[in-house]
Amino acid sequence: LQLASLKSVARFRQVPRPSQDTDGKFFFKQSVKMVLAVDLLNPSAAAEAKKHKLKTLVPQPRSFFMDVKCPGCFTITTVFSHAQTVVICQGCTTVLCQPTGGKARLTEGCSFRRK
Question: What is the pTM of this model?
Fold first, then answer.
């Protein structure tokens, strides 16, 4: 008998009740929606380009592989965009790209296609 009454009291306490004003009138508290100034689900392309590669909405690397065509013998060589060594053409031993601090710098006259 006592257990049943305790369960009903516990259920009663979980139900939200109206608050009483000083005038004796009852009112219900309303929830306030806060609106953000920036849309987090649909960021602009400019905002995504400024962010770190892992802090974007969809994290992905900024490096890529590319096919580089030699200006002398027109052979195609696959090169990593952030290559850290000098890449030389196998056909005519022309330098295709040189490393920098980040992306590799292509030599003038070389055309490339992103893979």
Answer: 0.62
CA distance 44 to 52: 15
Q: Which residues have C-beta within 8 Å of that of residue 107, sequence separation ≥ 6?
A: 71, 94, 95, 96, 97, 98
Looking at this protein, which amino acid is placed at residue 57?
L
Long-range interactions of 34-38: CB distance < 8 A, separation 24+: none
Q: Is 89 exposed, middle or buried (0-12, 13-18, 19+ CB in 10 A)?
A: buried
Amino acid at 110: C
Closest to 81 (Cα-Cα) out of 70, 67, 66: 66
pLDDT in tens, 52-102: 999 999 999 999 999 999 999 999 999 999 999 999 999 999 999 999 999
Domains and CATH numbers, the chain: 57-114 (2.20.25.100)
